[in-house]
């Protein structure tokens, strides 16, 4: 989840999954990886998610990703010699499926490789960073 979350940060998160929103940060259990991962919810059940030229479209409508730092994106594209931060793709989710991506799209194992997740895979969501103190605040 670089650049949003860093190793060594401490956060308190919620186990209330009654309302999962787009762009929530979530902790998931990955059966494929046999480990817990932290990602961001991009797609909700029944939606068609498309990335085209580094832009997110949900059901054909452009959705701005304000949480992504533009300078971080450009730096990673240069480092990886990639013209895109998020490669183009399109997926339609079924009932009960969620699509998650890491914030460092060029170096993230997420739904693009692992497939969709269901509510049973969720361990926590949202929350507040408590440490380090200079980053204290809501996870976004």
UniProtKB/TrEMBL annotation:
Superkingdom of the source species: Bacteria
Keywords annotated in UniProt: Hydrolase, Protease
Pfam families tied to this protein: Peptidase_S26 (PF10502)
Localization terms from the record: Cell membrane; Membrane
EC id: 3.4.21.89
Membrane topology designation: Single-pass type II membrane protein
GO biological process, one term: signal peptide processing
Single annotated GO MF: signal peptidase activity
Catalytic reaction(s) noted: Cleavage of hydrophobic, N-terminal signal or leader sequences from secreted and periplasmic proteins
Gene3D superfamilies in alphabetical order: Umud Fragment, subunit A
Protein name, per record: Signal peptidase I
The organism of origin for this protein: Kandleria vitulina DSM 20405
Lineage: Bacteria, Bacillati, Bacillota, Erysipelotrichia, Erysipelotrichales
């Amino acid at each position: 989840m670089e650049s949003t979350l860093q190793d060594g940060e401490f956060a308190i998160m919620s186990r209330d999954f009654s309302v999962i929103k787009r762009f929530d940060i979530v902790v998931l259990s990955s059966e494929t990886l046999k480990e817990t991962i932290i990602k961001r919810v991009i797609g909700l059940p029944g939606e068609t998610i498309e990335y085209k030229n580094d832009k997110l479209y949900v059901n054909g409508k452009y959705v701005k990703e304000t949480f992504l730092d533009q300078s971080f994106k450009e730096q990673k594209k240069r480092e990886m010699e990639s013209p895109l931060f998020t490669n183009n793709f399109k997926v339609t989710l079924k009932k009960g499926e969620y699509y998650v991506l890491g914030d460092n799209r060029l170096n993230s194992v997420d739904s693009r490789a692992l497939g969709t997740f269901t509510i049973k895979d969720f361990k926590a969501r949202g929350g507040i960073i408590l440490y380090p103190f200079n980053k204290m605040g809501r996870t976004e």
